[in-house]
Amino acid sequence: MGFLYSQLIESWRLPYPNTNYAGQTIVITGSNTGLGKEAARHYARLGASKLILAARNVDKGEAAKQDILTTAAKGVSIEVWQVDMASYVSVKAFAARIESELDRIDIFHANAGLVRAEFAMAEDNETGITVNYVSTFLLVALVLPKLRSTAEQFKTRPSLVITSSGAHRHTTFPQMEEVNILAAVNDRNYAGGRYWRDRYPISKLLGIFAVRSIAKEHPADTYPVTINLVSPGLCHSGLSREAKGMQKIMFTGMKMLLARSTENGSRTLVDAGVQGPESHGQYLEDCKIAEPSEVVTQNPDVQDRLWVELKAKLEGIQPGVTANF
Ligand SMILES: NC(=O)c1ccc[n+]([C@@H]2O[C@H](COP(=O)([O-])OP(=O)(O)OC[C@H]3O[C@@H](n4cnc5c(N)ncnc54)[C@H](OP(=O)(O)O)[C@@H]3O)[C@@H](O)[C@H]2O)c1
């Protein structure tokens, strides 16, 4: 009922972005297409000074840039930077470029994400877990110093928005019963593979736990950056591109009946960037703070254990990086 109400009624109420972004620098990963691209189009229309479109394929990013420029305000500078979230080396190189070439970041959208149709590893995790979770939080940790220095230098409160998903509600997360939760999440044969369909929901669920852990350690009143999560709702985009057979028929049918346009869904991303300190550590749906699933709210011990496991993983990738949280 909540999902249907959101898709059929709330979709008509999502505020059309109208903030003036003059002087601001905004970075969006996964912005060569889909929700990230439409969010970038809003920022360009609303006069952001500098927009960094982060894409794994620079040609696709350049094509998006040319398209966005047709509706951009005068004087907006748009650059396409390469990042492949399936590679830790690429994430680190992208973050190093941010550190050396940008003098400020006002809003950072960690938006790149994917749904895999088949099991495949990237780095030391299943691909979706690497892209949607581990690399996303590696990037968050690596860019936070720039957002913090922006806050201090320009006396502002930057935002870091992670694109989450209502799909996180679709799993009971049986792996949380295991001693090493992330090892179970990455186990191809966990429960005989029965939980394959849970992988994308779990990749988004893990992100919600992580943001809550950051906010638990660093509440809004002692932290200069707002970090929140946004669920855009079910939207038209390329996200289900790998679906085949029954999965494809199901996705196509659901989208035809219920999906938001990509532009409509992108409003939720832009809105999350201006929500401010009350939204720190929170999950947003339909441009409002919402309760995530009970798997999240009823299991603070799992949240704490996952935070220890994630930080250990990130330290293995770049020693010292978790001090940035
Ligand atoms: N559409 C929905 O209904 C929906 C609902 C809830 C949440 N979301 C979330 O919204 C975000 C945006 O997705 P979308 O719906 O706009 O889908 P999309 O059209 O498929 O866009 C996804 C973006 O992420 C990029 N990406 C994927 N893997 C990457 C990698 N390894 N490195 C760098 N970039 C990568 C894609 O680049 P390429 O073009 O090169 O593949 C693309 O730019 C995702 O986090 C998704 O989980 C979407």
Automatic annotation (TrEMBL):
InterPro entries: NAD(P)-bd_dom_sf (IPR036291), SDR_fam (IPR002347). The keyword Zinc does not apply. It comes from the Eukaryota. One of its GO terms (molecular function) is oxidoreductase activity. Keywords: Oxidoreductase. This is NAD(P)-binding protein. It comes from Parathielavia appendiculata.
